[in-house]
Amino acid sequence: MLTSVLRLLRIIFTVIRFRLDVFIPFALLPWYIRCTLGLVCSIGRKRASKNKGERLRLALESLGPIFVKFGQILSTRRDLLDDEIADELAKLQDKVPAFSGQVAQAIIERDLKAPVSELFAEFSVEPLASASIAQVHTATLHSGEDVIVKVIRPKIEKTIGKDIKLLYTLANLVANISEDGRRLRPVEVVTDYEYTILDELDLAKEAANTGLLQRNFVGSDLLYVPQIYWDYSHRNVMVMERIYGIPVADIPALNKANVNMKCLAERGVEIFFTQVFSHSFFHADMHPGNIFVDVSNPEKPKYIAIDCAIMGSLDDADKNYLARNLLAFFQRDYRLVAELHVESGWVPKGTPVHAFESAIRSVCEPMFAKPLKDISFGQVLIGLFQTARRFNMEVQPQLVLLEKTLLNIEGLGRQLYPDLDLWVTAKPFLEHWMREQMGPKRVMEEARKQAPQWAGQLPQIPNLIFTALSQMSHQDERIQAQTEAIDQLGKELKKSRKNLPFRLLGVMCLGAAWVFTDPASMEHLLTADLTSLGLFLAGLYLLVLKP
């Protein structure tokens, strides 16, 4: 708790130091927060010597990797930011202040257990680029291949650990004091983010992710993934093929190379949906610093992806619901969208579907028949959030990475080709995917997957058949025994029903004998008159002796 409080104090100090109060919408805050926060932010206030975009970038850099990641996401949303701020935040993609090259060399030698001179024919101590988690150096192997060497920042785990603890503190606070906060499931979201960011600190996992993504797109003309050199890769060091391409955010260079920007934007959308639905393994850190373009064929440009540390995956159920939801959106079938949300459990059971349908229509209908440049997903998300609040829809933590990636894709699409119609580009792909899920090809694929298991069970089939036949041979005997038992039970019930009047008469006789005889003692009963004695004997006979 103390660590979180100290970290929070540092964040507040950073806000004051870099005059980030200019980004706070004071007019929208309650008066008591407005006065308190305004007073705090005025402490030591001086005329800012830098523009607000630069101040924001420097503040995020000083706060560490989690805040840098946030700045990277914002940098792709030029529709939501001033150009001055967006240009500054774009520097967070690969121009974060580097750490010492000598320190990087020491980490390489420690992890790979050999001097740099033995590992590489050439090694550049000066970093080629530096980001929030790691930085890269250029090198040449003794076999002649040009490579890049990625090195994790020293002591980065400690900084991230403090931020994660603070996020958990804030998440629990939000979940405990606000109903809306509980619906957003902040603790689960932070837990998912913790797994993601910790995986990013392990370059061995990144190398494995890169290898899988490479296999998924082997032979593809859409995406190229560099080769990993496994003998030179470890937890804190990774060596991979050096690629040469134009950064996807360098629009002037792409135009100079006569790249077909419409095709490039459409291929980006196709790559994203292919990863999500066909491979169920998608690059979830697609900011411009991680994407390059091979312009050797300008009419059909090819993407190059690096930095596969953060990858996302959806299970079959989530993919199916997501695809059906998107198709329903494209077809403006808001009734189906509402029903799918209820069916999947994303909104509570019993939600009035017609009301939910109407609310979704009011948010989404204005989006259609517009190019991407005229659609603000930021405004759409705000509208959907308000709708979700009305109907108690919970955040799905497994979809958070996907939503983040969609924001990156949209921001990238705006830069490349603002007139791109995202719906027209994505709809045919989703329709084709849904047909494949329900067609004979899918059946054959499932049969092929299950074939090894079936083959392993083949030797057991004769025993299973023999057991089944043996059970069938004794089935008639069991049925006959059950029939006889049922018949006997019927006879007993019939007999019981036949004797029921006699039993009732016997009870009545005993009751009459009791009335006519003083029951103080048994001797009174034995000396009773003949009427009482006769009633007693008749009742005893009817209840006990008569079969």
What labels describe this entry?
four-stranded mixed β-sheet, elongated, 547 residues, alpha+beta
What does this structure look like?
The protein has 24 helices and eleven strands. It has 547 residues and is α+β, with helices and mostly antiparallel strands. Among the domains are: 2-90, no CATH class; 253-438, no CATH class; 475-545, no CATH class. The strands form three sheets. Strands 1, 2, 3, 4 and 6 form a five-stranded antiparallel sheet that branches. The protein has a four-stranded mixed sheet with strand order 5-10-9-7. A hairpin with a 3-residue loop joins strand 2 (129-130) and strand 3. Helix 8 (156-177) runs antiparallel to helix 10 and helix 22 (475-516) packs antiparallel against helix 24 (530-545). The longest helix is centred in the last third of the chain and has 42 residues, at 475-516. The chain is elongated and about 125 Å long. Residues 519-527 have low confidence and may be disordered. Belongs to the ABC1 family. UbiB subfamily. Belongs to the protein kinase superfamily. ADCK protein kinase family.
